[in-house]
Design goal:
The protein is 12% helix and 34% strand. The chain has 158 residues and is mainly beta.
Length: 158
């Protein structure tokens, strides 16, 4: 290689790169090992536009936080001023419904809890007959809150 001159293969790469940046396409580069006559879509697409932030992106479909919660495992249900109990939520990761096994001492009629369902950002706990006991909204990572039909405040957390 002579100083100031590029070998032919390197020159073809430079020309092909510049052509792609300018949005030019040609089958001429195929003769010297360039673009092979194809429009390199990855090189000619424009950069995305919009606001750039450091915040994490919301998941598709409305950004419901409860949709990303792995419900399987042990949770603690508490009723305002009444008491608290542990419940085991049976589920595979990513499941939107499953079974509940309440431990002893659950407040009110939550000892009858048998099913849970995540639907449209809400967690619904149902009894052994399928009747809803409470609907809870996600208020943070691994935490839900809501009220029973009688107005009792309920929270569920890990």
């Amino acid at each position: 290689m002579v100083c100031g001159r590029l070998p032919a293969w390197r020159l073809s790469a430079v020309v092909a790169g510049l052509a792609a940046l300018c949005g030019c396409t040609s089958d001429r580069f195929s003769a010297i090992g360039g673009l092979n006559g194809q429009n390199d879509a990855a090189a000619t697409t424009t950069a995305p536009t919009g606001k750039v932030t450091a915040a994490p992106l919301e998941p598709p479909g409305g950004g419901s936080q409860s949709a990303t919660v792995d419900m399987g495992g042990r949770w603690f249900l508490a009723a305002s001023g009444v008491g608290m109990c542990a419940m085991t939520f049976n589920a595979i990761p990513g499941a939107l419904e499953g079974a509940i096994a309440p431990e002893g001492g659950c407040p009110g009629n939550f000892f009858t809890s048998r099913q849970w369902v995540l639907s449209q950002g809400a967690l619904v706990i149902r009894d052994h007959n399928g009747a809803p006991l409470v609907q809870l909204a996600s208020v943070g990572p691994n935490r839900f809150e809501g009220r029973t039909t009688a107005g009792e405040v309920i929270s569920l957390a890990r």
